[in-house]
Amino acid sequence: MFDLESKITYNTLELNYENDTEELSVDKKQIVFEKIKEIIVQELGVKPEKVLMEAGLADDFGADSLDALELFNQIESEFLVSISDEAATKMNDVSDLVNYVVDHVSDKYFG
To answer: What pLDDT score does 111 carry?
Structure first.
């Protein structure tokens, strides 16, 4: 049976673990965003400051289907992920790309 002090210590440890997990997730997302930003700048000729999470591939960058295909190929090569045709049709903005990669990339990519 736990006494009050043990419960407080346990809850603090549990809270710290949850915060560490969130921070790791944010770090991964930031790493992926920065690399995807580089790829977008290179492939689409967009100025770096224009690449924001909410920026639309077609709406803000003027990417057509061929541009998107080349972009997806570069992302697949960089992160060693596979983007299915079905998934590709759902990717409209930078955040869609970042979230997809974060969900599918191997932890080995991060070190």
So the answer is: 83
